[in-house]
Records
---
Amino acid sequence: MGEDAEVAVATETAPQIAPLGLGIGWRAPLAMMIDRREDLRFVEITAEHFPGSRVPPALDRLCAQGRTIIPHGISVSLGSAEGINVAALRQLDALARRFHSPFVSEHLAFVRAGGVEAGHLLPLPRTRAALEVVVENVKRAQAILTVPLAIENISALFAWPEAEMTDAAFLRELLERTGALLLLDTSNVYANAANMGLPVAEFLDGIPLERLAYVHVGGGEQRDGVYHDTHAHAVTAEALGVLAELVKRVRPPGVMLERDDHFPTEEEMSAELERIRAVMEGR
Amino acid sequence: MSREELARKQAEVLRALAGGEPAAAFAGLEHARAVLLGKRRREAALSAPQLTEHLGERFADLFREYAAQVGYPARGGPVGDAAAFGRWLQRRRALPHKALAEAARLRAAVGFPLQIVRVGRGIGVAMRLGR
């Protein structure tokens, strides 16, 4: 952002969540850097990376230092019409209890159907019928969890026919009917804007930001006319622009960088974290 | 649309993504396949850092070849996928020596059987290639 840019920064945080600060997705190649940077006040861990909840000592150390650890799932499949993966959900909960996490997070997506695993997150049809299914699944998940659940928006890899609602309306009604928290992935918002023409401001104005728990920011690249949310490249200025739009509306309790591949030098990583911090703080 | 009908439609989409079957009602499935492969490769790489390091630039091409032949596992998530990739490499005698211990650990983590075997004067741990 330019030095002379005037930025309106909201002063009210989402009331339900204690401030988390600046954070990062914990990955083994980043462990030493995360250890050294005590200003990274929270880390998110992907539960499926630790089968049987066998976690490395580095995470216990971070917890002992008072840093917040957020367990994040990718296989519960909150959007599956066949029902959720209860074992995966119990693992999320076990990690939350081990690390005294304030909540856990998962996705508004499905990952399996008909005996086939997708391997990652797929969008739901934006219909009333699908909404009823995911509301029921989320309530079932909440009944099992001992901590609150935050739900993340995903990028639309493909389009279902016959949409009855906008993304924002679907997400809003899901969160309001279940009382779940919001994990806002700004890179996914940017990807949907770049690839499907979904206006950023309209989306942000349509979702319940008072339920915001924390924010993802990740890098990507434009390739063959499509923006790819790779988590393997620097965060583009355009993607950071979504975070800037967000902080005009609400002060996020926490913002974290997602980096999963082609890890840069510690200096480059630090510079990127400082860029994110600057936007968080409206500088 | 009932829950059962949504389940059928979700299964149809997954068959189209995994098996390359046509699904004319859905726009963007080719892009989705490419993105899913990238995410699958990324998660497997994170689960197997030694394998990633020792394969180096060959990781992406080998994983693409593996993923075209082997679907995402029903058990173990990304760790299970990395374990299956290691087994696939071993069958091709392409598993780097320095990644053997990690491959065994991944298989143990998702519950695949290991054997204690005599190797010269010592003992070692062997991976069973079959399930």
---
Amino acid sequence: MAGSPRRTPPVADSGPEPDRCLVRAQLDRLLPGDPYGVLPLVRTILSERALLLDPDRVTLRVFALLARSRAAAPGIELARRTILDAVEQALEQLLEEEAGDLWSSPNRDGGDTFSRFAVSLGLDADSMGEARARFHMLDLATRAAFLHLVVEGRPLETLQVGRGQDRGVLLRSAREALDIFRASLSPPDSPPSTHPLP
Amino acid sequence: MTAPEPSRQDLPSRAGLPVSGEGVDRPEDGDLGVPAARPGETVEVGSSGIVGSESMEGILELEFARLNRRSLASLLRQATGVVVPRAPYYGVLAGFPLPPQSVRLWRRRARAALRLVRGAKSVPSAADWISQLLVRPVERWPVASRLARSARRVEDSEFTRITQGYALLCEGEAGRAHNVFRGIEGCVRVLRHAWRVHEGLALSLELLGRHREALETMETAAEDPRRGVSAVAEGLRLSLLYGSRSRARRSAARLDMLVEERSPAFAAVLGRMRLRARILGLPSPRSAELADLVRRLAMEPGTPSGRVAVLLLSS
């Protein structure tokens, strides 16, 4: 499997589905001590993709996906590619679900770390949730610039830019991303506050 | 896939299209009572990390429950793709957001999914209902909109709502389709397929006789960077019928710039427009100015805008 150029199909949809006992058995192999390093991998990918998702939540979804797919082929060693595909699938699903949760479960008190953080500050979890979902609709360069400049507070000069990109443009984009979160924090008529962006 | 052409005797005229007005999507007799998705099936995790956590069992059960719901909602959504070609206006009013589905493949996927979820506490009704579909001949399956609504009750997502809206359009239920799209419109800022919502809403508004709103809404769809060919082409059609000359010219230029004249997607849109014109009739442009623009565009039938104009001239 390693080095195979062919993309592995979505893990939860591959082959005949096993029954639940086999799934539980696979979970027992995947979980203790995280032998396949799923959580560190998830953290790395979330950082690379500049996504504001709870790494624990993503990891749980990955475990669930892997357990379902591995139960169909219990004797085969778990390949790195399969784990990466499961992470991709988990991210795609959770990003879809975060939008759907906004209208299917209003007035939640929030169940993930991000929502609980918002609630602990007296903020409305749904507004923050919507802001996060809108943030995730932005392009990667904008998200990365926002995290670099706003969340991590690093100087503009250290922001890595790709070919054809301009730091000034990314700065403006980061400000727009910041406005998405500001809008969820401020009452409608309050004046815009300043932020120490460069 | 081309819908079999219904006879004129089976369908009402355009004026008599079964428009249910601004009605509410009411539960119907025979709805098999698929329970709505439980709100906020989120996962409590400790800040110290999950690996080795004593609450792992319960936490992962929630994730499996969520995956089960996704799986079953997806199956029900795909089931709409199996039956929707039977809908009277399939291939007429709007392109369905799913390709036609093979019932054989659907049954295989359904059996596989049911082996996994059987016994799970969270989705007994949905699993039972899919089991019923497995043993029924497809001719006795519920209509597409009922299947789509059940999918939405299992998992209320962007995809299940959009599927429900388009299923209703294919069944000629413009009022109910309007309600579904309107219900999700407020969330377009976080939708990955917002253009589909605007397109569906625009088509339902047109059927309800709210032409100006339809045009504005379709323009929103056409301006969406992720839009499909249909939104751009329908945007031109509506501009030429109900807009202004300047707006229609911009729409024509946009269509010609963005769409390949020979693209299969554009051909499919034109096919729907022709079928719609034959079955429902075709209105005329609302002004002499627009009618003149239609004639001018039709002089270049090799362009996408010219082909749309030629179609409008055939009224």
